[in-house]
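Q: How would the structure tokens look for this protein?
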Amino acid sequence: MHARLSAEPPAQVVDLGCGQGFSTIALARAYPKAQVVGIDNDEASVADARRLAEEEPDLGNVAYALSDASELATSGPYDLICVVRGVARHGTSGGGARRGACGAGRGRRGAGRR
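A: Here is the predicted structure in token form.
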């Protein structure tokens, strides 16, 4: 996967279930030319993530959204969808998250396989 992403870096990345945004910041650093969006359905976590991003003024490629994983398909498409933690244990149905991610992935990278 690393070789493939190095050869063709993603332009649109989503960090699904971003929590307080640490993984989103890491993705933004790893892919500085990509627009990286952290999505979480917990308002306090998204607020924390936005504050964290404010402490990183050199990263202009980070945004956060209060959203449910099942809505992901309508906000994409994305070149890379990352899930760092188990989203299902936080109240989002695994099936809803999977359907949202499948609908949001771009086929050219093999994302969105059902």
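The mean pLDDT is 77.

DSSP finds five helices and four strands in the chain.

Upvote if useful.
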